[in-house]
Amino acid sequence: MLTAARAGAAALTAALLAGAAAAPAFADIPSPTASLGAAPLPDGLYGKGDPTYDGVWRQSLALTALTAAKVTPADSAVSWLTGQQCADGGWPSYRADTATACDPAFEDSNATALSIQALTALGGHQDAVDKGVQWLKANQNADGSWAYNPGNPGDANSTGLAVNALIATKTDPAGVAKAGRNAFDGLAVFQLGCAAPADQRGAFVYQTAPAGAPAAEPNALASGQASLAAAGGKLPVANGNRTDAAPKALACADGGSTSTATSTATAIAAAAVPRADSGEAAGAYLTAQLAAGGQHLTLTLPGAAPTPDYTATAWAALGLVQGGHPQQAAGAVDWLAKEGGTWTKGGTDAAATATLVLVAQAAQRDPAAFGGTDLVKQLTALGPAPKAVGAASAGASASASAEKDKDKDSGIGKFWLLGVGLLIGIGGGLVLSLQRKRGAKL
């Protein structure tokens, strides 16, 4: 029998990995602490909502984004994250009581992968990072993939995040293997190749379908999140590579197959996407999907009207920038700048706000003036006061202040010149008048 927490985690996983945006999913899942009333939030935690299912996730995103924005987080924020780590090196979604040993079944590869990236970006936490990497290695599936929770079938999202973490720690994913299948092989399990319909090639499915079952459909969130790993990236994205050409679609002989009668596993195995082509193929698929969807990806769930998928769109933009295609990501970045306030719930959702900061930084936009919003200020306000704020985050306000001072000085200068001109004019007029009066007397 599933406990309330287990049922909630399972529901969250299904919602997230089916393509649901993170924030609404968390809000819709009952918390095991909800019936106990509003409990005080842990010291050092970013965000004001119940952390049961996303505490470590949102904390890791916040620390990564702020560090990249040259904000030094409070010690309490960092120690909260390191304190969530289990003895075996993994992280759960949230530990309410860190004095109690972790249940390995509840440890979360997604939380672990993001924690590793956050602590790597912060620096100075090598022991925790090394233990986290060892946990990932120990919990890799036989096909090279990772599951959300250990012991379950792998999925594209979890595998992509694990690859991101390995890259962040300079651990070659090609050298992390189980039963002869490495991490890149595990990622390829979920990417559609030449056996898929032409408009699906390069996409990622969440999980492969069992033998004999209808093929799984491309998944927006899986494609967005896995694309960063396919392009060889990590968080934060700081890739200077840029190409003028659009991502290259997968080259297939004879046009490939358009049949969906076989299982996804059979289709992928029949024409696995080569590692060298994975990032470009994913980028080409996402570029086409963004163009067709008004520069955003769409969440489609059975029985529900399609809605914009902010999370998938943000990760797609990150993947495209990492792949060297910021121009193809620009439309999605513009859309996120315009519509991001809805996703962040006016800046109160820490995970969404942090992700937008990361997108803005990757696209070389100013996160302190993204869509007219200071995302860094909003994110900072959701947690403990930072130790320091660097030039990158303070630059926008300083620049704005300088511009105001410039305008002010310019205005004063204009009035001063005008005043001097008037005085000269008045003085000249008085001199002429006096001369005329003097001449009249003579």
TrEMBL record:
InterPro entries reported for this sequence: SQ_cyclase_C, Terpenoid_cyclase/PrenylTrfase
Transmembrane feature ranges: 415-434
Pfam families the UniProt entry points to: SQHop_cyclase_C (PF13243)
Every Squalene cyclase C-terminal domain range: 55-147
Signal sequence extent: 1-27
Keywords for the protein's UniProt record, in alphabetical order: Membrane, Metal-binding, Signal, Transmembrane, Transmembrane helix
Record protein name field: Squalene cyclase C-terminal domain-containing protein
Taxonomic placement: Bacteria, Bacillati, Actinomycetota, Actinomycetes, Kitasatosporales
